[in-house]
Specification:
Length: 213
């Protein structure tokens, strides 16, 4: 669990790279500068931890590109106290960013190996979501709905109706939609029955899987 001045310097460089790519939210960049991403990945990849790359983690999943994490966080315009549902805890890096943005985070993971690992690891770094849930992200978390924001960190072949139904009026759902490649799609709930849809470009995610394992 070492975090050195060299790591800090690499984080600063990464934040500069993300800024050059269009990340302008200062709170997001500050989170990137602060969170020790090298601790979220296998130590064999540590030398590359602060490049804008995705890496494999447990259970055939990946830790997303830093740009993707920053883009999703910036797009959702997280405000302090926002109640946020994260579908796909994964390594916990996106969770940590949301917590640095002072969100109230509920995070669901369907891979039991990852759920166990990340729910033990994040508190060691001082990151404590409201709840870690081992469950099916397609169902969301109806008992805690509605949410200000819902963020999906895996590629979904379609938009789950359950998630749309769990957003507050005025709230947002950000989800990568598609099979092999995804279109980052933002839904803003305008009224109980009306949603505004925005397509925000192509991304590549591991698939969002149903059921628990």
């Amino acid at each position: 669990m070492r975090d050195t001045t060299k790591h800090q310097g690499l984080r600063n460089q990464l934040a500069n790279v993300l800024e050059a790519k269009g990340i302008i939210d200062e709170k997001v960049l500050k989170a990137v500068r602060k969170i020790p991403r090298h601790l979220f990945i296998d130590s064999s990849f540590e030398a590359h931890a602060y490049q804008d790359k995705a890496f494999p983690i447990a259970a055939e999943q990946t830790i997303s590109h830093p740009y993707t994490v920053a883009f999703q966080s910036q797009t959702l315009a997280i405000k302090e106290g926002d109640k946020v549902l994260e579908i796909g805890t994964g390594s916990g890096y996106q969770t940590a960013v949301l917590l640095e943005l002072k969100a109230e985070v509920y995070s669901i993971e369907r891979q039991h190996e990852l759920f166990k690992k990340t729910s033990l690891f994040l508190p060691k770094l001082g990151y404590r979501p409201k709840r870690f849930i081992f469950g099916d992200g397609y169902k969301g978390l109806p008992e805690q709905a509605p949410f200000d924001k819902i963020i999906v960190t895996a590629g979904a072949p379609f938009v789950p109706k359950a998630l749309l139904g769990q957003i507050k009026v005025g709230g947002m759902l950000l989800i990568p939609v598609g099979d092999t490649e995804q279109v980052m799609t933002l839904f803003i709930r305008k009224s109980p029955k009306e949603f505004e849809k925005h397509e925000l470009g192509d991304f590549k995610f591991v698939p969002m899987l149903k059921k628990k394992n």
